[in-house]
């Protein structure tokens, strides 16, 4: 890959990461927060891949999606708005 | 959840997800991934089954007792593999120095004991994820 493209992708992913991280704290609905957290970990997995760390990328993707599933399990118990 | 399309899709996809999980576990020393990620993928396939088909049917497939047995087995397996080195007169977790054949580099069997240790860790991670999920989903009195 040409180095400029890697830089551009890095900037795009990192800005998306910041946006998602801020959005998670602003969303009131817990289900949307869990889904946004999933988007966060997928983005950071892409960043690991860009930094030539595929091992971390796989772990991040698997653990991020797993955490999201577990959080949705918690949400289904305490209610979407949280009590 | 009683959606027909969802149920059939999950039934279709889950075997391949489990196969991918075990593939990642077994190729931990050759390709990206390893016991942790492979174990989580395997555990997530069981969680997806419980989420779609209901917790009761999921519990029928993998009961809580079986999960705790598998979890303990994973930890004991790791210890037992470590003791191979001690029994051969070297240190704990010794691999080549204990006389374990290492195999050919690049092939599936190329790390000596690492393949077996990784299998134990993967089983433990998978069962731990499922146990966590069941503990969160179950209603406490």
Task: Write a structural description.
The complex is a heterodimer of chains A (83) and B (141). By secondary structure, chain A is mostly helical. Chain A has one domain (3-78). Helices cover 84% and strands 0% of the residues of chain A. Chain A contains three helices and no strands. Chain A has helices at residues 3-26, 30-50, 54-78. In chain A, helix 2 (30-50) runs antiparallel to helix 3. Chain A is elongated and about 50 Å long. The N and C termini of chain A lie far apart (49 Å). The model of chain A has no long low-confidence stretch (mean pLDDT 87). Chain B has one domain (4-137). Chain B contains five helices and no strands. The two termini of chain B are 24 Å apart. With 141 residues, chain B is mostly helical. Chain B is elongated. The interface between A and B is medium-sized, with 15 and 19 residues.
Question: Which secondary structure elements does this structure contain, and how are they paired or packed?
Answer:
The complex is a heterodimer of chains A (83) and B (141).
Chain A: H1 3-26, H2 30-50, H3 54-78
Helix pairs in contact in A: 1-2, 2-3
Chain B: H1 4-26, H2 35-53, H3 55-61, H4 64-87, H5 114-137
Summary of the model, kept short:
Chain A has 83 residues and is mostly helical. Chain A has helices spanning 3-26, 30-50, 54-78.
User: Based on CA inertia axes, which overall geometry of chain A fits?
Assistant: elongated
Number of helices of chain A: 3
- Rg from Cα of chain B: 18 Å
Mean pLDDT of chain B equals 87
End-to-end C-alpha gap of chain A: 49 Å
Count of alpha and pi helical runs of chain B: 5
Helices and strands of chain A, in order, run as: HHH
Biggest sheet of chain B: strands, sense, closure?
A: none
Oligomeric composition of the shown chains: heterodimer
Tell the overall outline of chain B.
Answer: elongated
| Low confidence ranges of chain B | none
Outline the biggest β-sheet of chain A: none
What's the number of domains of chain B?
1
Give the fraction of residues assigned to helices of chain B.
55-70%
> Which consecutive residue ranges of chain A, at least 5 long each, have pLDDT under 50?
none
Helix content of chain A: over 70%
């Amino acid at each position: 890959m040409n180095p400029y493209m890697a830089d551009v992708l890095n900037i795009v992913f990192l800005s998306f990461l910041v946006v998602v991280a801020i959005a998670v704290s602003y969303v009131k609905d817990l289900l949307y927060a869990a889904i946004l957290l999933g988007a966060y970990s997928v983005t950071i997995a892409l960043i690991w891949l860009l930094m030539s760390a595929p091992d971390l990328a796989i772990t991040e993707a698997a653990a991020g999606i797993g955490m999201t599933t577990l959080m949705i399990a918690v949400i289904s118990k305490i209610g979407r708005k949280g009590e | 959840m009683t959606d027909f399309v969802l149920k059939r899709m999950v039934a279709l996809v889950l075997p391949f997800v489990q196969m991918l999980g075990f593939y990642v576990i077994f190729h931990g020393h050759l390709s990206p991934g390893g016991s942790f990620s492979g174990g989580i993928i395997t555990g997530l396939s069981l969680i997806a089954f419980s989420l779609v088909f209901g917790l009761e049917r999921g519990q029928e497939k993998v009961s809580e007792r079986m999960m705790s047995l598998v979890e303990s087995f994973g930890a004991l397996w790791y210890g037992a593999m470590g003791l191979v080195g001690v029994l051969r007169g070297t240190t704990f977790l010794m691999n080549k120095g204990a006389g374990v054949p290492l195999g050919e580099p690049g092939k599936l069997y190329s790390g000596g004991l690492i393949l077996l240790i990784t299998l134990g860790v993967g089983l433990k991670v998978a069962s731990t994820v499922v146990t966590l999920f069941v503990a969160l989903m179950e209603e406490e009195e």
